[in-house]
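C-alpha coordinates please, single chain.
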Amino acid sequence: MKREVKSPKGATIKAPEPPRSEIRQFGNAIEYMVDQMAQRWRTQIFKELNQSTIKKFTDASQVGNFAKVFLAMSARVRRKLLKQFDDPRIEQLAKKYTGKVDKRNKAEFYRRASEKIGISREELEATEGLTSQINAYQLETMQWVKKMRDDTLQQWTSNTLRQMAEGKGLPEILKQFDGMVEQRKGHAKMVARTQISTFNSLTSKIRAQNLGIKKAIWVSSRDERVRDSHQARDGKEFDLNEGLYSASDGKTLLPGTDYRCRCTAIMVIPEMED
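Here you go.
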Protein backbone atom coordinates (compact mmCIF):
# COMPACT_ATOMS: atom_id res chain seq x y z
CA MET A 1 0.00 0.00 0.00
CA LYS A 2 1.57 3.26 -1.10
CA ARG A 3 1.94 6.02 1.46
CA GLU A 4 2.82 9.70 1.12
CA VAL A 5 5.05 10.39 4.10
CA LYS A 6 6.23 13.85 5.06
CA SER A 7 8.64 15.27 7.61
CA PRO A 8 8.10 18.57 9.44
CA LYS A 9 11.73 19.60 9.02
CA GLY A 10 12.81 17.27 6.25
CA ALA A 11 14.64 14.05 7.01
CA THR A 12 16.60 11.31 5.30
CA ILE A 13 16.74 7.52 5.36
CA LYS A 14 20.01 5.77 4.64
CA ALA A 15 19.45 2.77 2.37
CA PRO A 16 20.59 -0.58 3.83
CA GLU A 17 23.97 -1.82 2.64
CA PRO A 18 24.13 -5.12 0.67
CA PRO A 19 24.86 -7.99 3.08
CA ARG A 20 28.36 -9.41 2.70
CA SER A 21 27.35 -12.87 3.91
CA GLU A 22 24.82 -13.31 1.09
CA ILE A 23 27.30 -11.97 -1.47
CA ARG A 24 29.86 -14.53 -0.31
CA GLN A 25 27.41 -17.44 -0.13
CA PHE A 26 25.83 -16.67 -3.49
CA GLY A 27 29.27 -16.38 -5.06
CA ASN A 28 30.29 -19.73 -3.59
CA ALA A 29 27.13 -21.34 -4.98
CA ILE A 30 27.74 -20.06 -8.52
CA GLU A 31 31.43 -20.97 -8.28
CA TYR A 32 30.40 -24.49 -7.27
CA MET A 33 28.27 -24.74 -10.41
CA VAL A 34 31.26 -23.73 -12.56
CA ASP A 35 33.51 -26.23 -10.77
CA GLN A 36 31.05 -29.09 -11.23
CA MET A 37 30.62 -28.29 -14.92
CA ALA A 38 34.41 -28.21 -15.35
CA GLN A 39 34.84 -31.61 -13.70
CA ARG A 40 32.33 -33.19 -16.07
CA TRP A 41 33.92 -31.46 -19.04
CA ARG A 42 37.34 -32.88 -18.14
CA THR A 43 36.24 -36.44 -17.43
CA GLN A 44 33.67 -36.85 -20.20
CA ILE A 45 35.49 -35.03 -23.00
CA PHE A 46 39.22 -34.67 -22.50
CA LYS A 47 39.76 -38.05 -20.85
CA GLU A 48 37.59 -39.81 -23.41
CA LEU A 49 39.60 -38.32 -26.26
CA ASN A 50 42.51 -40.45 -25.04
CA GLN A 51 45.09 -38.44 -26.96
CA SER A 52 47.73 -37.98 -24.26
CA THR A 53 50.40 -39.71 -26.36
CA ILE A 54 49.54 -37.90 -29.58
CA LYS A 55 51.10 -34.48 -30.12
CA LYS A 56 48.57 -33.09 -32.54
CA PHE A 57 44.83 -33.56 -32.83
CA THR A 58 45.31 -33.52 -36.56
CA ASP A 59 47.13 -36.85 -36.14
CA ALA A 60 44.31 -38.38 -34.09
CA SER A 61 43.00 -41.84 -34.88
CA GLN A 62 39.44 -40.93 -33.88
CA VAL A 63 36.87 -42.02 -36.44
CA GLY A 64 35.90 -39.04 -38.62
CA ASN A 65 37.01 -35.44 -38.44
CA PHE A 66 38.38 -34.51 -35.00
CA ALA A 67 36.31 -31.35 -34.87
CA LYS A 68 33.10 -33.27 -35.43
CA VAL A 69 34.11 -35.77 -32.75
CA PHE A 70 34.77 -33.01 -30.24
CA LEU A 71 31.57 -31.13 -31.06
CA ALA A 72 29.50 -34.30 -30.69
CA MET A 73 31.07 -35.00 -27.30
CA SER A 74 30.67 -31.42 -26.09
CA ALA A 75 27.02 -31.36 -27.21
CA ARG A 76 26.35 -34.53 -25.23
CA VAL A 77 28.02 -33.18 -22.09
CA ARG A 78 26.29 -29.83 -22.54
CA ARG A 79 22.89 -31.55 -22.53
CA LYS A 80 23.78 -33.33 -19.29
CA LEU A 81 24.97 -30.13 -17.65
CA LEU A 82 21.90 -28.19 -18.71
CA LYS A 83 19.84 -30.93 -17.12
CA GLN A 84 21.90 -30.92 -13.91
CA PHE A 85 21.90 -27.11 -13.67
CA ASP A 86 18.56 -26.45 -15.34
CA ASP A 87 16.60 -23.20 -15.22
CA PRO A 88 14.35 -24.24 -12.29
CA ARG A 89 17.42 -25.08 -10.19
CA ILE A 90 19.03 -21.74 -11.02
CA GLU A 91 15.76 -19.93 -10.27
CA GLN A 92 15.59 -21.69 -6.90
CA LEU A 93 19.20 -20.70 -6.20
CA ALA A 94 18.56 -17.06 -7.07
CA LYS A 95 15.39 -16.93 -4.97
CA LYS A 96 17.16 -18.48 -1.99
CA TYR A 97 19.75 -15.73 -1.70
CA THR A 98 17.74 -12.78 -2.98
CA GLY A 99 15.00 -13.85 -0.58
CA LYS A 100 17.44 -13.50 2.31
CA VAL A 101 18.58 -10.11 1.03
CA ASP A 102 14.97 -8.95 0.63
CA LYS A 103 14.07 -10.03 4.16
CA ARG A 104 17.01 -8.16 5.62
CA ASN A 105 16.45 -5.07 3.44
CA LYS A 106 12.78 -4.96 4.34
CA ALA A 107 13.36 -5.13 8.08
CA GLU A 108 16.29 -2.69 8.09
CA PHE A 109 14.77 -0.16 5.68
CA TYR A 110 11.52 0.08 7.61
CA ARG A 111 13.35 0.15 10.95
CA ARG A 112 15.26 3.20 9.75
CA ALA A 113 12.12 4.72 8.22
CA SER A 114 10.05 4.23 11.37
CA GLU A 115 12.47 6.38 13.35
CA LYS A 116 11.89 9.28 10.95
CA ILE A 117 8.21 9.08 10.06
CA GLY A 118 6.62 7.78 13.26
CA ILE A 119 5.02 4.66 11.80
CA SER A 120 6.05 1.32 13.29
CA ARG A 121 8.28 -1.02 11.31
CA GLU A 122 5.72 -3.81 11.74
CA GLU A 123 2.93 -1.74 10.19
CA LEU A 124 5.12 -0.66 7.28
CA GLU A 125 6.11 -4.26 6.56
CA ALA A 126 2.57 -5.60 6.84
CA THR A 127 1.12 -3.08 4.37
CA GLU A 128 3.96 -3.02 1.84
CA GLY A 129 2.40 -4.78 -1.19
CA LEU A 130 5.52 -4.99 -3.41
CA THR A 131 5.56 -8.73 -4.10
CA SER A 132 5.29 -8.50 -7.88
CA GLN A 133 8.20 -6.07 -8.17
CA ILE A 134 10.38 -8.15 -5.84
CA ASN A 135 9.61 -11.27 -7.88
CA ALA A 136 10.62 -9.47 -11.07
CA TYR A 137 13.97 -8.47 -9.58
CA GLN A 138 14.54 -12.06 -8.45
CA LEU A 139 13.90 -13.33 -11.97
CA GLU A 140 16.35 -10.75 -13.31
CA THR A 141 19.02 -12.19 -11.00
CA MET A 142 18.18 -15.68 -12.24
CA GLN A 143 18.69 -14.56 -15.84
CA TRP A 144 22.20 -13.33 -15.04
CA VAL A 145 23.17 -16.67 -13.46
CA LYS A 146 21.66 -18.50 -16.44
CA LYS A 147 23.73 -16.30 -18.76
CA MET A 148 26.82 -17.13 -16.69
CA ARG A 149 26.12 -20.84 -17.18
CA ASP A 150 25.47 -20.59 -20.92
CA ASP A 151 28.40 -18.27 -21.64
CA THR A 152 30.75 -20.58 -19.74
CA LEU A 153 29.80 -23.63 -21.80
CA GLN A 154 30.02 -21.65 -25.03
CA GLN A 155 33.46 -20.31 -24.11
CA TRP A 156 34.80 -23.77 -23.34
CA THR A 157 33.44 -25.15 -26.60
CA SER A 158 34.62 -22.41 -28.95
CA ASN A 159 38.03 -21.83 -27.36
CA THR A 160 38.87 -25.55 -27.19
CA LEU A 161 37.75 -26.08 -30.77
CA ARG A 162 39.94 -23.22 -31.97
CA GLN A 163 43.00 -24.64 -30.22
CA MET A 164 42.35 -28.06 -31.69
CA ALA A 165 42.04 -26.52 -35.14
CA GLU A 166 45.41 -24.84 -34.60
CA GLY A 167 46.95 -28.23 -33.92
CA LYS A 168 47.60 -27.78 -30.20
CA GLY A 169 48.34 -30.87 -28.13
CA LEU A 170 46.11 -32.10 -25.30
CA PRO A 171 48.45 -30.93 -22.46
CA GLU A 172 48.40 -27.38 -23.81
CA ILE A 173 44.64 -27.48 -24.34
CA LEU A 174 44.12 -28.72 -20.77
CA LYS A 175 46.33 -25.94 -19.43
CA GLN A 176 44.30 -23.36 -21.34
CA PHE A 177 41.07 -24.97 -20.12
CA ASP A 178 42.17 -24.81 -16.48
CA GLY A 179 42.92 -21.12 -16.96
CA MET A 180 39.44 -20.55 -18.38
CA VAL A 181 37.89 -22.38 -15.44
CA GLU A 182 39.66 -20.14 -12.92
CA GLN A 183 38.64 -17.07 -14.91
CA ARG A 184 34.98 -18.16 -14.86
CA LYS A 185 35.16 -18.81 -11.11
CA GLY A 186 36.37 -15.26 -10.63
CA HIS A 187 33.57 -14.05 -12.87
CA ALA A 188 31.09 -15.99 -10.73
CA LYS A 189 32.16 -13.96 -7.69
CA MET A 190 31.69 -10.73 -9.63
CA VAL A 191 28.23 -11.78 -10.85
CA ALA A 192 27.20 -12.61 -7.29
CA ARG A 193 28.43 -9.31 -5.88
CA THR A 194 26.90 -7.24 -8.67
CA GLN A 195 23.53 -8.98 -8.59
CA ILE A 196 23.11 -8.98 -4.81
CA SER A 197 24.13 -5.31 -4.69
CA THR A 198 21.78 -4.46 -7.57
CA PHE A 199 18.88 -6.37 -6.03
CA ASN A 200 19.45 -4.67 -2.68
CA SER A 201 19.59 -1.23 -4.32
CA LEU A 202 16.43 -1.78 -6.36
CA THR A 203 14.43 -3.05 -3.41
CA SER A 204 15.50 0.00 -1.40
CA LYS A 205 14.38 2.22 -4.28
CA ILE A 206 10.89 0.76 -4.60
CA ARG A 207 10.41 0.80 -0.83
CA ALA A 208 11.33 4.47 -0.74
CA GLN A 209 9.00 5.20 -3.65
CA ASN A 210 6.27 3.25 -1.89
CA LEU A 211 6.55 5.82 0.91
CA GLY A 212 6.21 8.68 -1.56
CA ILE A 213 9.94 9.47 -1.58
CA LYS A 214 11.10 10.74 -4.97
CA LYS A 215 14.62 12.03 -4.36
CA ALA A 216 17.87 10.52 -3.08
CA ILE A 217 21.51 11.53 -2.61
CA TRP A 218 24.36 9.47 -4.07
CA VAL A 219 27.00 8.48 -1.49
CA SER A 220 30.24 6.85 -2.64
CA SER A 221 32.44 4.72 -0.36
CA ARG A 222 34.90 7.62 -0.43
CA ASP A 223 38.14 5.66 -0.49
CA GLU A 224 40.98 5.09 -2.95
CA ARG A 225 39.07 2.31 -4.73
CA VAL A 226 36.17 4.50 -5.88
CA ARG A 227 36.16 4.93 -9.66
CA ASP A 228 36.24 8.50 -10.90
CA SER A 229 32.78 8.38 -12.47
CA HIS A 230 31.21 7.33 -9.16
CA GLN A 231 33.20 9.85 -7.17
CA ALA A 232 31.85 12.50 -9.52
CA ARG A 233 28.32 11.57 -8.41
CA ASP A 234 29.10 11.69 -4.69
CA GLY A 235 26.78 14.02 -2.75
CA LYS A 236 24.52 14.81 -5.69
CA GLU A 237 20.76 14.59 -5.46
CA PHE A 238 18.84 12.69 -8.13
CA ASP A 239 15.40 11.45 -9.08
CA LEU A 240 14.85 7.88 -7.86
CA ASN A 241 12.77 7.09 -10.91
CA GLU A 242 15.57 8.07 -13.28
CA GLY A 243 18.93 7.55 -11.59
CA LEU A 244 21.95 9.86 -11.79
CA TYR A 245 23.74 10.71 -15.03
CA SER A 246 27.45 11.52 -15.20
CA ALA A 247 29.30 12.75 -18.26
CA SER A 248 32.45 10.99 -16.97
CA ASP A 249 31.09 7.59 -18.02
CA GLY A 250 28.00 8.57 -20.05
CA LYS A 251 25.72 6.40 -17.91
CA THR A 252 22.59 6.95 -15.86
CA LEU A 253 22.86 4.77 -12.76
CA LEU A 254 21.43 4.03 -9.34
CA PRO A 255 23.94 3.54 -6.50
CA GLY A 256 24.96 -0.10 -6.15
CA THR A 257 23.79 -1.23 -9.60
CA ASP A 258 27.02 -0.87 -11.59
CA TYR A 259 29.49 -3.77 -11.55
CA ARG A 260 31.41 -3.91 -8.25
CA CYS A 261 29.74 -0.71 -7.14
CA ARG A 262 29.91 -0.07 -3.37
CA CYS A 263 28.01 3.21 -3.43
CA THR A 264 24.79 3.70 -1.46
CA ALA A 265 21.88 6.12 -1.37
CA ILE A 266 20.32 8.41 1.20
CA MET A 267 16.57 8.78 0.61
CA VAL A 268 15.21 12.31 1.04
CA ILE A 269 11.83 12.52 2.80
CA PRO A 270 9.92 15.51 1.43
CA GLU A 271 9.20 18.32 3.86
CA MET A 272 5.71 18.95 5.12
CA GLU A 273 4.24 22.14 3.67
CA ASP A 274 3.07 24.86 6.04
